[in-house]
Amino acid sequence: MGIAAAIGVLSPFPFYYWLWSYPQTWVGMCGKGRDPCKVMAYVSHFLKLIQFLSLFSVSTFSWPPPLYFWPLIAFGQFLNFRVYQLLGESGTYYGVRFGKNIPWVTEFPFGMLLLRGTDLENLQRHIPILMEARTADCLIATSIVARTASYRGLSLNYFGVGFILVYGIPLCV
Fold first, then answer.
1. Distance of alpha carbon 104 from alpha carbon 110, whole angstroms
2. Could you state, in order of their start, the residue ranges of all structural domains in the chain?
3. Residue 77: what pLDDT?
4. What percent of the chain is helix, strand and coil (3-state, nearest 5)?
5. What is the CA radius of gyration of the chain?
6. Would you give the DSSP letter of residue 168?
């Protein structure tokens, strides 16, 4: 079950790599009259559901959750809200790669939270301590997400941290 969960957790990353590397192929597949960012958003939400279900399949829950659960969920959702607020759907879903003009944003969190790959890997080493995880599979899946996100560059490092803090910790405790 752990291998299937790891595959489910990793499933979006080849898709994102392909879109970033070959954006015009995606635009052509979407066809004329369809917004490639909107189609990408639908596919990304489906892949996020697969990630959630994959982690859910190897996780154990405890109720009530630890006290750090609520601030992490709230902060993660705040970051999600800010990204959509500042970039919009086109900016969030690779619009710049699909030929759209997306303005440069420096407001929080973009001008403040700068994590390099090494920072994320250091955070990854401490996450098992924070999680108090009860299953090895969940640790493996969370570790793979952190390590994979660290190779994607600044924007996905930000995404990777949000994913781990928002989805990894509540599902693993």
1. 10
2. 2-172
3. 93
4. 70, 0, 30
5. 17
6. I
Q: Which tops the pLDDT comparison, 122 or 27? A: 27
Distances (CA, A) of 86 to 82, 91, 115: 6, 8, 19
Describe the crossing of helices 69-92 and 154-163 by its angle, rounded to 10 degrees. 140
Task: Give the pTM.
Answer: 0.62
Distance of CA 11 to the CA centre of its chain: 11
For 26-56, the pLDDT digits (tens) are 999 999 999 999 999 999 999 999 999 999 8
In 3-state terms, what secondary structure has residue 34? coil
Residue written as token pair 């996100």: 149
The full DSSP string for 104-126 is ---STTTTT----HHHHHHHHHH
pLDDT category at 62 given cuts 50, 70, 90 is confident
The residue length of the chain stands at 173
Q: How far is CA 163 from the centre of its chain?
A: 4
Q: What DSSP character marks residue 52? A: H
